[in-house]
């Protein structure tokens, strides 16, 4: 969602219990839905464990989406008890009735770069993109609109995903973020319907670099 500035800081949240779950997760879960991650982002030095996922093709078209319309993914059972309280705490900062349409735990490998891009799918344009750093380092630089930022663990922020952004990990240890997309209750369904028509022709856009 484009709200003007590069980002906005939301609040500090307790991530300790979620970090414990991340550190204890079965390594196989990181690769369990790599096909989905690759379809969304292309080649990246990242791994993702999804809790929620949907796109315009799967959304109802005769009414607005509800949370129970969103698919629970491979990571839901392992992470929900510790991730959902954080998500609920942050969603309370926004008008009621919103839906979490995507959610993942994202791991960025040391030395990796997420190349400069802009999120251009109608769903992501309409949604609040929330990042909650879980484990991070001063050597992880987040560039938004070509401005560098270093975000601290536990400090949730909303990214203006319509600004070009990239991440460079210059450190030596994995970086972990909880990332989720909050679709407001009053979203305009028209772009979603248009995306479905494009999707049927294989034309749904994902990112622009």
Overview of the structural elements:
With 209 residues, this protein is of the alpha+beta class. The protein has a single domain, classed as B-lactam Antibiotic, Isopenicillin N Synthase, Chain (Jelly Rolls), CATH 2.60.120. Helix content is 23%, strand content 33%. It is built from 5 helices and 12 strands. A 7-stranded antiparallel beta sheet has the order 1-9-6-11-4-2-3. Strands 8-7-10-5-12 form a 5-stranded antiparallel beta sheet, with no helix packed on it. A hairpin with a 2-residue loop joins strand 7 and strand 8. Helix 1 packs antiparallel against helix 3. The radius of gyration is 16 Å and the shape is globular.
Question: In a few lines, what is going on in this structure?
Answer:
With 209 residues, the protein is of the alpha+beta class.
**Regions with pLDDT < 50 over 5+ consecutive residues?**
none
Order of helices and strands: EHHEEHEEHEEEEEEHE
Helix fraction, binned, reads 10-25%
CATH architecture: Sandwich
The helix/strand class is alpha+beta
Distance between the termini: 17 Å
Q: Which CATH first-tier class would you pick?
A: Mainly Beta
CATH topology name, in short, is Jelly Rolls
| Percentage of β-strand residues | 25-35%
Cross-sheet strand order for the largest sheet: 1-9-6-11-4-2-3
Biggest sheet, open or closed, and with what strands and sense? 7 strands, antiparallel
Average pLDDT score: 91
Instruction: Report the C-alpha radius of gyration, rounded.
Output: 16 Å
Let me know the CATH homologous superfamily. Answer: B-lactam Antibiotic, Isopenicillin N Synthase, Chain
* Oligomeric organization of the protein chains: single chain
* Count, helices: 5
The strand count comes to: 12
